[in-house]
Structures are given as structure tokens and as C-alpha cells.
Design a protein that fits this description.
By secondary structure, the chain is an alpha/beta fold. Helices cover 37% and strands 18% of the residues. The two termini are 27 Å apart.
């Protein structure tokens, strides 16, 4: 890709120190979460790849939340 730069982003959604039950309540809120707003903003800005850093067991729950809110169709990975 001559003349173009590929831009990526990393979003920390670790929830360290927050019990799983509280994190699940957070994901079930009716309002978009901060990381959802960041994903949409990065998308609109043309960011090619987005990585979400989270703790064990939360990636599936976060991914389900994103799909439930129709935030999909782009390259988001979990670390």
C-alpha cells in the first residue's frame, strides 16, 4: 500500500478488581459502554484493526454485547 498508512487501536477493557457479576451488569446496561463508543468512533475515523484487552472469561461476554448492539462487521480481536 504505497501512500497509505494502516492504523490500529488498542482498548483496555480489563475490569481488574471488578467482580464478574458487576462487569456483567455493566455490559447489560441500556446505554452504550465507553468501549462501544470508542469502537464506533475509531471505525468512523477509519481505524483498520481494533484489539480489546480483557481478562479471562470476559471476551465472549463482551463480544456478545457488541453483537447484540449491532457493533460488528469489522476487525475486532481480543487479547
Amino acid at each position: 500500500m504505497v501512500g497509505q498508512m494502516k492504523i490500529g487501536a488498542v482498548i483496555l477493557v480489563a475490569g481488574v478488581g471488578i467482580p464478574d457479576e458487576e462487569m456483567e451488569k455493566f455490559l447489560e446496561m441500556k446505554r452504550p459502554t465507553i468501549f462501544e463508543q470508542m469502537i464506533v468512533s475509531y471505525q468512523r475515523a477509519g481505524v483498520a484493526d481494533i484489539a480489546l484487552v480483557t481478562r479471562d472469561g470476559m471476551a465472549d461476554k463482551i463480544e456478545q454485547t457488541l453483537h447484540r448492539r449491532y457493533i460488528f462487521g469489522y476487525r475486532v480481536g481480543f487479547l
